[in-house]
Structure formats: structure tokens, C-alpha cells
Amino acid sequence: MPRWKVFLSQYLRWSSTVTQAFALSIITFCVIFPLCCHRLLYSYYFIKSMYLDSMSEVVLRESLDRGQEALHFWQSSSTTATSRFNNFTQHPELLVTVVTARRKEARDYHYLLQVMLQLSNIVGSCGEQKCAEVLVCDVESGPQENQDAKVLESHFRVVRRSPQEQQSIQERINTFEKEKRDYVFCLRRGWELVKPKNIVVLEDDALPRNDFFIVIKDLLSRRFALHTLYIKLYHPERLQRYWNPEPYRILEWVGLGLVGATALLLSFPYWNPCSFSFTLSATHLLFFTLYFMTVAELLGRHYLLEVRRISPQLYAVSPATECCTPAMLFPGNASLRVAEYLDSSFCYKGHAKDIVLYQMARTVPGQRSHSVEPNLISHIGAYSSVRANPSRPKLL
């Protein structure tokens, strides 16, 4: 028999671990995953051309419906039922400041009203006392009013710049610098009003999840919170993959592969329905480590993170990422330091306030910043208040 036939017969028979590894990989990545993951938005197998448009329309419709429900709720609610939000206490444990501006394209979606309705529903989840005081910071500076903020005036404390302050910011500045100045104004005004122990700043399209306050309370009880400048409560799902520049995720990725590989190989002596010949050897451990790492990445890290929602203690805290500030927690008086630093920086395209904060935490001695995963808010703002918008926004 020719040598090549001997080689093939040796390695292609089912009892060969090479054949088993090849077959397992083909079945997993070329059959099972394409069938099961082609509609998962953050999976590599997601078929954009088939599902992105329809899924985007569904999400827009759901947001529109929630917005109309929220508008009806706040217009029909009596001020007596919501008077507890207008009565501020000094030095609360937590102040939630919602920064808002008028959104021309998204006026029917009422993002702000959706967020405030959710906050009003979950602010009582901490027991007898409110989880937080809630403040609306209206930074609209155009000739037209922010109608959603007007609707909320009888239910929440709404703060705005004085006419003199409005005039002082009428100079021609770019969008990113104005956004930063609005953020600094809201940070300082919230602190001046009630001197809170901790501050959360939400943008008006950051819809809190039901466990929002429970997880924040747990985060503030952890030791790291005493020494951090800020904790990011949201990072875009499309940027949560393992294959990215964040070093800690590489360690998490390899660790997940090792744990999965070890557990599987240890289980084979007790449960092996496919009659695999794998053992706890270095070669087989390496193969299954890579196998589980590939499974996790192609499936989507976002979906694995969702398992952590079982308990507040399972939420992961890691070094802060660069992008985005829809939801930020500032422990202690960190908000004042952040306001001072932002004030001393000028923002422009490519150097927005999130980049400035990230650089501050990395370059100023003694400053640290963190992110929590999974996200504590859903980013519902398909239409931006500060950037150009497409006619029909997409999820990706």
C-alpha cells in the first residue's frame, strides 16, 4: 500500500483524535452555528443583508410605542402622585442627573419621557427610602423649547441655564465642545443643589434596566469605588467582543477557553456519547482551549455577559474603555474633579468628552476609571441630538 494511503488510513479513521477534532470543528462552525446564530445581532454569523433592516424597524417601532405610552402617562399623571420627585433632600446617597436637549427628528419617540418613566418605576426598588434623587438638566439653547422637559416640570425638578448663562455660550463653538460644556454645567448644578454623596449622569436616551439601582448600590459598596474617578455603566455591544485592543479581555478569553477545555476533558471518562478519544494531554488541552475561545468569539461575548445578570455580585468591573458616556457613575466628589478637568480641555471631532475623560484617567497620577459589564442601560437613541441623522437609523 502506498505511503500516502497508509497515512490517510491512520489519521482519517474515527478513532484518530485528528479526525475527531476536524469533524467537531466542521460540525460546530459550519453547521450548528450558521443555523443557530444567523439572527443574533452581535454574532459573526449575523446575516445583515437579510435581517438588519427588519430588526431595525422593529426596534424603532417598539421605541415609538414606548414613547407614546410615556407621553400619555406624564400628561395624565397628577402632580400629587409624583410629588416625591420634586421634594429633594440634602446630601442624598445618590443623585441621578438626566441631561437632555431637543431632538428634532426624534420628537415622536420622547426618549426623555421614556427614561423618566422607567426611573420613576424603579426608584423605589431599594426599600423604604428612594434609591436616588432625580434631576432633569435641560441644556437646550435653541430658539425652540424642549417640549419633553416642559411636560416633566410639574413632576421633577428641571434646571436650565439662566438667560445670562445662555448668552455666554452663544459664541460659535463646535458641537463636541458645546456637548462638553452642557455636561459640565449639569455636573456642577447637580452638586450645587443637593451636595450628593455620589452622582450618576444619564443622557436622555439611556434607558435604565430594572436592576439599575440595585447594581449601583452593590458597586458603591465595593472597595474599588473609593478610589475611582468614574465608572462607565454602558459600552456599545458591538464593541464588547474579545478580539479588540483591551488587554483584560484577552486574559478573560484565554481563561474561558482553559476552563471550558479542562472541564470537558475531565468529563469524558464519565460521559462520552460520541466515543471521543481525547485525554487530558497538553495537545488536546490546547485544541479545546482554542475551540472554546473560537466558540465564545463567534457566538458573541455580549450574549455570554448576559448570564451575569443573575446576581448584582456577578457584574464584572474592569478598566474603563474609551468610547461613549451615555451613563456614568461618579463616586464621592469625583464629579467636581471631572468638571474641572473637562473645563480645562477643548473638545472637537476625534477629541470628544469621552476621549478627554479616558485620557485623564490614564495620564493624571492617582486617577483610575472603570467599566461595569453587562450594561446597566439600553441605549435607545437611534436619533442623535448633536450629530447628523440618517432617515432611518440602523442597529449596526
From TrEMBL:
Bilayer-spanning residue ranges: 20-42, 250-271, 277-299
GO BP annotations listed: GPI anchor biosynthetic process
MF annotations from Gene Ontology: glycosyltransferase activity
Record keywords: Membrane, Transmembrane, Transmembrane helix
Keyword Membrane: yes
GO-annotated cellular components: Golgi membrane
Domain of life (superkingdom): Eukaryota
InterPro entries: PGAP4
UniProt xrefs under PANTHER family: POST-GPI ATTACHMENT TO PROTEINS FACTOR 4, TRANSMEMBRANE PROTEIN 246
This protein's name: Post-GPI attachment to proteins GalNAc transferase 4
Organism: Neolamprologus brichardi
Lineage: Eukaryota, Metazoa, Chordata, Craniata, Vertebrata
